[in-house]
Amino acid sequence: MIYLAVPYSHKNKNVRELRFEIANMVTAILIRSGAIVYSPISHTHPVDKYMKGDFGWVEFDFNFLKHCKKLVILRLPGWKESEGIKREMEYANNNNIKIEFIDLCA
Question: What is the CATH code of the structural domain delimited by 2-102?
Answer without folding.
Answer: 3.40.50.10400
